[in-house]
Structures
1.
Amino acid sequence: MLTFDDGTHHHLMGSAVLGRDPAADAAHPSAELVPVHDPDRSISKTHVALTVQSGAVLVEDLHSTNGTQVHNPDGSMTTVLPGASV
């Protein structure tokens, strides 16, 4: 389950592409498109891909303008390089 800052929730099943106005891309043709309300415009139109795999969620930055960071359970952060999955 994804929970966004505005309190909305989304069940993640398979893969999804998130952004202000996400568009399908060749690397994720069957991904669900999930628009994210972002009045501050801190995320790109097509920002990140999330994929459920073996009980984990893989995060892939889709060459976003501001980049992507994953907040780990231990409190540390991992920067996601464009095109790579974390």
2.
Amino acid sequence: MGLRGYIIKRIVYTFVLIIAVITVNFVIFNLMPGNPIQQYVASLRGRITEERLQRLERAYGLDKPLIERYFLTIVNMLTFNFGISWQSGDPFAKMILTPLVNTLILMGISTILSIVVGIIIGTLCAARRGGIFDSTMVLLSLATYSVPIYFIAWTVILIFGIQLKWFPTGGIEPHEWGRNPPTNIFEVIAGRIPYLILPTLTLFVFTVGGWILLTRATVLEAITEDYVVTAKAKGLPERTILYKHVLKNAAPPLLTQIVLSLASMIGGAIITETCFSYNGMGLLTWRAIYPVPDLPLLNALFYVMALAVIIGNFIADLLYGVVDPRIRYG
């Protein structure tokens, strides 16, 4: 099978997987005992106008048979028509937009930093396996990767936010912006950077250890191959051997994890964003759960997160052949 056939096969498989995710979401939110969506809409009677209640019922197909509701759900999910909020009357797609951008900024910075630093240090650990540097990094990685993230967040807040007062302990922007928001993009960036430091540091400390350990393990598998001995015999510098030859051949498992990590950024970090009151997808998910579950919003959030992971996995499969020519599509 050639590349074109493989891509078509993967597209079909991905579409089937998306339909499966939508089906599971439909079962969870519509076919569980008591019909959660129907109960959710019914609980709003008396709290909103009758006109808005009817709009909600039509949006979720509660006036239609079950099979029609299922196909309506498929169409709505594929077109990102997630319904409307009973509180504001705004579409959920609009409500998700701002938290999504905030989360991509936070998770993007912390994830990329963790990947780059983790791969560099992990490769060095593998090259110096058994030494002081390797043992120290492995010990620190296991420690930070095992500690609960809320403990790291509280420690960071206590040291840098409360004791040293270097950075704000929560929020995404200065409070005075609510009354007088800046119009200059550079002022916006400069004003938001201090609010990104502590949550970014928390996520970096929590995740970088995993990248160090994963990179070390994959590089150790490749570093004993014959081509490494040949490269050393040719007199190539150690850095060239590590980063141009060994790391390239150890890349496939790292590539999968990188793509899935980037895809999972959309889900945000519930604990970290809650600890820092950071208005992202994680905090939005928490508010959709507590104190009163917002089932339609949860349905939309779960679908978006699952869709990002599915697409990320599809991209990873396509990149395999680019990174490692030994892989053949078939």
